[in-house]
Design goal:
The chain is α+β, with helices and mostly antiparallel strands. The chain has eight helices and twelve strands. It is elongated and about 55 Å long.
Amino acid sequence: MSGDTLKRYKAEFPFGEHHDCRALTTLTIEHLPPDGSLGKQLEFGRGVDVWQPGDRSDSLYFIKSGQAALIASSIEGNEIVLNVFDAGEPFGELCFCGRGDTAHRQNWARATTESTIVEIKLADFLNYLQDNSEILGAFVFTFCIRLADALRRVEILSYRGAEERLGMLLLHLASTREKRIIKERTGQVELLVTHDDLARMAAMSRQHVTITLGRLRQAGIVNYKRGHPLTLQPDALTDYLTNKSFKR
């Protein structure tokens, strides 16, 4: 792992990646007509799929309340979380290249909590964009940010060492997750993720994640207990990973 990569994370934290981009306003449910005339409101229980592989890719979704995850399957059949979307955010916008019978999903979207989600047909959404240049700009900014995040996730998954991969994922989540809680005086960050979440995001087994987190806890970098958020010291983790890379 290069020292430059770690320095980049340290320089960006705690303001978050794409800080300047977000000032341009990303697309949220607040951009939809307040009268509910665009789209259809749906209710999903925890663990219920919004779509599955093979379903038609002709809709965009906005989360009114709750949370949803985008999930892929590895060759071994293990689930990998590609992204997590929180209340207000759109999802399902990255699969509009097909038309007719060729437009089908290749992954899953699943409600991770009880969720209220607005489904908008692609044709209706495109018409709405054409009549609203501000919303079109917000859609483009959102698309660019997610593409950059996807490339960063690919970079993280390229690390073979468990501590490097999980450590870089934790730094990424600390700088991008909207639901993080920053403790200004201590520099700590609380992440609302479980060991299972981290395992699926990092394409690691849960046992491997638990063992690796145990090492980081012994080093005073993370702290966690059942029913509480995982607490992270981003600066300490950056220094830890940098020192390990220098020893190789």
